[in-house]
Design goal:
The protein has twelve helices and 16 strands. With about 425 residues, the protein is α/β, with parallel strands linked by helices. It has two domains: about 170 residues, NAD(P)-binding Rossmann-like Domain (Rossmann fold, 3-Layer(aba) Sandwich); about 230 residues, Dihydrodipicolinate Reductase, domain 2 (2-Layer Sandwich), CATH 3.30.360.10. The strands form two sheets. The protein has a ten-stranded mixed β-sheet with strand order 14-13-12-11-7-10-9-8-15-16. The protein has a six-stranded parallel β-sheet with strand order 3-2-1-4-5-6, with helices on both faces. Helix 2 packs parallel to helix 3 and helix 6 packs antiparallel against helix 11. The longest helix is centred in the C-terminal third of the chain and has 20 residues. It is globular and about 60 Å long.
């Protein structure tokens, strides 16, 4: 029982079975007093940020207490939405996320800003004693991922990356089957996602809309005059802020491959591609060859020439010495000795199923154990995506030292592992 003078944050830390390394399901906690409810704030409340609002207000032990956005229109609309999602409860709006981090009553934040803000906001939240549910991609570059992990470990925080598909039964089952050895030793994995960025034309700069803090939206990125196509949803097609269609979808399907295979010893990266049409500068299409110790992994924009791939717009194809497995978000087919099935009943269930991706995060915050899409895992899974984009930009094959996390004998490539933020917005390191 919590004493009246025991701080709520300390009580949350002490509840659960963190010392046993357990991630508990909601039923293990019973009911919580109002003072024990998680106080959550959402930073970045555009499209995905509104999803965060809906997801977290739907969890019985969570109160959403604050929202933040640099666009006053987004913020006002989202505050109005909160009145219907959480009737009768006060939610305060902010234009600067640092004001949220200063609030001692907030336990955790979610971050759904453009990609180039993800890492700094998460690292500063860790420093402020807050746990983080952060959208993918994890970070803008390799160094940012390293920085995030350093601060998470230093401040003993919890992090969940917003790969909601990770929580599905299909991904859990694919991982169980691959790890069981049912298709033998897997030597090759093929990943793909069809689609291309839109042609954004060649628009000229215009006046910044009233209510948009463009300087803060840019933040650590280089300053440029305002062009609507570079802001909000279509920001992802500019290398100053994101990595395009590829970076948007990499973790969705690479997730199941990295979870199942845990590839180590990345040696080389070789990318080919074509730039998007118009003002955008991310890839129109990109194909990448990765060589790990004992594993070749291929990313393609079009489905590979393997059975079952053509009818899947996104997928993973595992080639083992006893058979193959193909999957997408919700389906799977295993082929062994010419027979194709959707499951192998004799392969036991060995991975605890998720109570829901956001609930998994809340449970982790309470038990002080890391959730499934934790930062250490997400960083390793995201890193090859960054390296693939560097190979694409330099138009050459690159050799990688996985222990030092540096390219071998290539100063130009190593310079792209990080970006120096604008001095005004270099808020942590």
């Amino acid at each position: 029982m919590q004493s009246k003078d025991q701080p709520r944050r300390e009580f949350i830390k002490q509840t659960g079975l963190g010392l046993l390394g357990l991630t508990l399901l909601p039923s293990a906690y019973g009911k919580f007093a109002a003072s024990d409810r998680l106080q959550v704030a959402h930073i970045g409340v555009g499209g995905m940020g509104n999803n965060h609002m809906k997801w977290f207000t739907g969890l019985p032990e969570v109160d959403v207490v604050a929202l933040c956005d640099v666009d006053e229109g987004h913020l006002a609309s989202s505050l109005k939405t909160m009145e219907t999602l959480q009737p009768g409860k006060k939610v305060k709006g902010y234009g600067d996320f640092r004001q949220i981090l200063d609030r001692q009553d907030i336990d955790a934040i979610t971050c759904a800003t453009p990609d180039h803000w993800h890492a700094q906001i998460a690292a500063m939240a860790f420093q402020a004693g807050k746990d983080v549910y952060g959208e993918k991609p994890l970070s803008y570059d390799v160094k940012e991922g390293q920085m995030m992990l350093k601060h998470l470990e230093k401040h003993n925080r919890i992090f969940q990356m917003g790969t909601q598909i990770h929580a599905t039964d299909n991904y859990h089952r694919v991982v169980e089957i691959i790890k069981s050895g049912a298709i033998g030793n897997v030597h090759t994995v093929r990943l793909w996602k069809t689609g291309a960025p839109p042609d954004l034309g060649n628009p000229k700069p215009v006046a910044v809309p009233k209510g948009l803090n463009w300087d803060m939206w840019l933040g650590p990125a280089p300053y440029v005059d305002y062009v609507p196509e570079k802001c909000h949803f279509t920001y992802r097609y500019f290398l100053d802020y994101s990595g395009g269609f590829f970076a948007d979808f990499w973790c969705h399907i690479a997730d199941v491959a990295f979870w199942a295979m845990e590839p180590k010893g990345l040696r080389s990266i070789s990318a080919r591609g074509e730039e998007a049409a118009g003002i955008a500068d991310t890839p129109k299409w990109i194909d990448i060859d990765y060589e790990f110790d004992g594993l070749n992994l291929y990313w393609t924009t079009e489905p590979p020439n393997v059975p079952g791939a053509a009818e899947r717009g996104i997928g993973a194809y595992f080639e083992g010495d006893k058979g193959t497995l193909i999957c997408d978000y919700s389906t799977r087919e295993i082929t062994i000795n010419g027979e194709t099935v959707t499951d192998i009943p004799e392969t036991p269930q060995s991975i605890l199923r998720s109570p829901g991706h956001q609930q998994n995060f809340v449970d982790a915050v309470k038990s002080r154990t890391q959730p499934e899409s934790n930062l250490a895992y997400a960083r390793e899974m995201t890193l090859p995506m960054h390296l693939g984009l560097i190979s694409y930009r330099l138009k050459r094959k690159l050799q990688w030292n996985s222990k030092k996390e540096r390219f071998i004998g290539d100063s130009e490539a190593n310079a792209l592992l990080s970006r120096k933020p604008r001095a005004k917005w270099r808020l942590t390191k």
